[in-house]
Predict the 3D structure of the following.
Amino acid sequence: MFIFRKDLIYESYYYLFDPQKEVTSYKEIDAVFASFPKKAYVELDKSYLSKTKSSKFKYKRLLKRKEYYVIGRKDLHTKIAGDVQVKDLLPQKDNYYKKCLSSNEKLYWLMDKRVVYKLLDLQKELKKAGYNPKGFTVRNGHRYPSYNERIGGASVSRHILGEAIDLTIGDIDGNGRYEEKKDKKIVLELLDKKIIRNEGGVGLYPGTSSVHFDV
């Protein structure tokens, strides 16, 4: 609870003293990513690799050629697509994440810009069709292996590679209430027919308010 409240203090500070405009173009997304230092997998701290299980053989094979963005506490509140922030694409519920936040340690963020472009495309397509572009919550982006295992994610999940995003769908049509089949169908159809198409996958998660997409 203490860590959560501490995070709220930092978030309030950046809202008040470092207000940001929404990110509305690929060029702006590129600029945000370019503002973060990068480290290759082989340069990552051994403690990180061990604690996140990123050094396990089956994950090392996936990750060894990847470059990670180095994120500080102040970077977590940087907008990355619309008003979605960097922190929304990190495993905020994980104890390792909370520990880094509390001690102001750097976080390593593996995120593919292509899937962030798709997130922005979804916001734009919803607005264009007269729907609420903020009618969903980003629930998952990058998940390092230990967290992915803990929540029961697929062993070679696209989230481990930073190539997937999960959403919780809300009131998309703006009628003041969430109707699972109706609101979710709007998002799924846009993702399938206009945004992802043959460039990735869309996860349906029947019977829930969740939607997955990847590149």
Notes: Residues 2-17 form the longest helix (16 residues). The chain has a mean pLDDT of 91. The first strand starts at residue 38 and ends at 40.
